[in-house]
Amino acid sequence: MAVTPLLIGMPEMRQSSLVVVANRLPIDDSVAPDGACEWRRSPGGLVSALHPLLRHTPATWVGWAGGTGPAPALPDIDGVRMRSVPLSGEDLRDHYEGFANATLWPIYHDAVEQPQHHRRWWDAYQRVNQRFAEATAQVAEPGAVVWVQDYHLQLVPGLLRTLRPDLRIGFFLHVPFPPPELFMQLPRRAELLRGMLGADLVGFQRAQAAHNFAQLVTKVLGLPATDRRVGVEDRVVRIGAFPVSIDTVEMAALADRPDVADRAHRLRHDLGSPDQVILSVDRMDYTKGIEQRLKAYSELLAGGHVKVRDTVLVQVAVPSRERVSQYQILRDRVEREVGRINGEFGRVGEPAIHYLTQPFDRAELAALYRVADVMAVTPLRDGMNLVAKEYVAARVDDSGALLLSEFAGAAAELPQAYLVNPHDLEGLKQGLLAALRADPADVGERMRSMRAYLHEHDIRAWARSYLSTLDQSGSMLTRLGGG
Ligand code: ADP
Ligand code: F6P
């Protein structure tokens, strides 16, 4: 089997019957001097989804450990083997920051920012996908199930099928899959589709995405397809929607802990004991609608509809993809606007917006969710949005209003939320006011039904549904802890 130069010299690993392949490993960049290493719940939906699932499962996770240069040898973490794939500085720039996050990411999110195209980014995308495929081929035992995640690795299923035809290969896309008019802009559209079709099952967050994919494989590759199946030579590739979720029970248990309840009380006190707290928690990303939300809040303040003393906004926006120019520009604009709003409407000791850019541990996030009377989740486009689901799971007393964008995948599952179109500034303001002024009985009723839904449709139900479709025999279900 061909091995790319960066993998030469890597220690051989034991093989696994379940291999997850994702761009990122779920661990911190830094490994302690004694070699100890902890799961990192990095701000991002993919790690949040897969972490509770794989813990204590004899699986291997193939991914990038952060940083550049040779891949570190990592210890098993919570029983999961870590196989790191190295990225050079050039790979990082051209694959992760370039093709993945400056070409595919904007195209897949309605082109709310202009996608960029560079030929060397495509070269890097192919090179890095090849390296991931080879690393995976080394650690997958004969007949193993390999579950490839997300848009960074769309060529891996096809490459892996060539290297290891014995494997059962799944692919899941965490982000939206765009309509044909947008996808057709991609110069390498045929190769990207062919790469995904190397899988036995291609999963999406929403049925619309599966439909877009089916249309595209027919249009671009001339293959026969329905929204459930594509014929590829002598194979049938299944396609479908599998909305990702969270560990509902874990989040509810965390939010219910006495120390978390105490922390929530203290937070409210530290916020000046306002009547109402609005909370938003996002990666700093132009898809999240942060600027539109700030504008809506600022106009409500200016119009006298809300007063800083009574209603505060807590905006958590953890920096993301910081070397990509569109992300730098966004951060500058958001910070300027937060400064303007605080300057104009705040008072000494009473800012209008509490703006935080730090990563928080799960208990602190749960306390924030508990303190939020209104959770504003208003992305312009989002594959799912797990923050919305985490908020619902954390509202153990059934209180709290979720203001949710129609353009988040979660909206299809949580129609009881206060739904808004974040492109419509007036609608956003009205939605925010409606959530702030809602009758507590109505709020409680909505929250109860969302909580009941999430109790059933949690992360394990997602994995069960995906893996049982991948292997109709159901034999893979036993490979996941907590089955
Ligand atoms: P995305 O995958 O686009 O980042 P999601 O809402 O699906 O969006 O997932 C974000 C995940 O990152 C959630 O699990 C959330 O709890 C976590 N997260 C977001 N902000 C922070 C933060 N400041 N500290 C820690 N975790 C965070
Ligand atoms: O949800 C899409 C996604 O790219 C996930 O793959 C990841 O969990 C998250 O956004 C964070 O992105 P990054 O890995 O670029 O920090």
From TrEMBL:
Pfam families attached to this UniProt entry: Glyco_transf_20
Entries under InterPro entries matching the protein: Glyco_trans_20
Superkingdom in the source lineage: Bacteria
Record-linked Gene3D superfamilies: Glycogen Phosphorylase B (3.40.50.2000)
GO molecular function: alpha,alpha-trehalose-phosphate synthase (UDP-forming) activity
Signal peptide: none
Protein name in UniProt: Trehalose-6-phosphate synthase
